[in-house]
From TrEMBL:
<keyword id="KW-0328">Glycosyltransferase</keyword>
<dbReference type="Pfam" id="PF08323">
    <property type="entry name" value="Glyco_transf_5"/>
</dbReference>
<keyword id="KW-0750">Starch biosynthesis</keyword>
<protein>
    <recommendedName>
        <fullName>starch synthase</fullName>
        <ecNumber>2.4.1.21</ecNumber>
    </recommendedName>
</protein>
<keyword id="KW-0808">Transferase</keyword>
<dbReference type="InterPro" id="IPR013534">
    <property type="entry name" value="Starch_synth_cat_dom"/>
</dbReference>
<feature type="domain" description="Starch synthase catalytic">
    <location>
        <begin position="58"/>
        <end position="297"/>
    </location>
</feature>
<comment type="pathway">
    <text>Glycan biosynthesis; starch biosynthesis.</text>
</comment>
<dbReference type="GO" id="GO:0009011">
    <property type="term" value="F:alpha-1,4-glucan glucosyltransferase (ADP-glucose donor) activity"/>
</dbReference>
<dbReference type="GO" id="GO:0019252">
    <property type="term" value="P:starch biosynthetic process"/>
</dbReference>
Amino acid sequence: MVLTSLIGSKEASEFRWLVMDSIGSIADYFSEKMHKQDTELLVELRHFPRKSRKSGYHIIHICTEMAPVVSVGSLAPYVTGLSRALQRKGNLVEVILPKYASLNLNEVHGLREVEAEFHSYFNGQLHGNRIWTGVVCGIGVTFIEPLYYSAFFGCENIYGYSNDFERFTYFSRASLDYIIKAGKHPDVLHIHNWETSIVGPLFWDVFVNQGLGGTRIMLTCQSFESQCVEQPEKLALCGLDPYGLHCSDRLQDNNKSHLVNVLKAGVVYSNNVIIMSSMQTKGQIIHATSHGLEPTLTIHKDKLVVAPPGFDSSAWDPSVDMFLPQNYSADLKGKSVCKVSLQQHLGLQEKASIVLVGFTLVEDLPAKVYNQTLLMGISQRLSLLLAFSL
């Protein structure tokens, strides 16, 4: 509504607080009104009952995956599960994604294009974008579709192209431009892996004084293996100063001093950094699996937090799952029955005390087998099942 000049940013901010304060009921209230025009919905919002303000946060994820609309690895279910959990706690959560050609749009409720002009900066010029909005798993999602650079996200795969830096830098800058244009004032911008780490320096060097003084940056790293190193001059594409950032305490790569490191940018310019690991301590990660970022992580160790991969119990609950031969809950009664059933299915020795370890890609599993194996209570690593011990 701000993009179409129907309301101002101040009133939009008030409505966002209204949504936050009414979370859990507003979705039901408006579920049958999604087909209405903005002018009609505006009337509904202005008559929606006010409640006492909760102490929640406005959180915006700027990321490249979200299950089930676009999923390559563990990032996608992490974003969805975390967003749903935060929203259930009374926070207002949004997600911004590129509008890939390969999106599973069947999973987007109420998808529509915003009929408004929106431009973002890249390579010295302002470029037009289409903005699409919808709801995924109860979370509001914005999709950004470049017009001039339409090939950036019109390709078959999500990652693995020679211009990945340009693609995701464009998206990161466009996401921040959109947040400003839409009059949003989030408490937290949550960025993920190297692909959106450039948001960190962009935010503090370009955007913080555009009404975002109260916003803080959080970075989540699924691992430090993929970092993206590039020529410093490429930073100018999104409006950053290559000369000011190409130094050891900022973006200069720790091993290749003539290059800049995009993931390092996220670490240096974030207020908090979440490292996903269920088996390693902070010290072990810094000294053994940082892939050259050890000096940077050591300097910023006070803002590092190690967190195990999460699991969204609202998306899967073994106490009610219909695919299990016997349901179980936290007391694990019935789990051994499920294990024996799996052994039967795979033609293995049927004995609940035997430890099974299986390796298989999640995407390769049929739905029923996927649910059975996942529900054996194994470590929930969504890129790889490390299965079935009891």
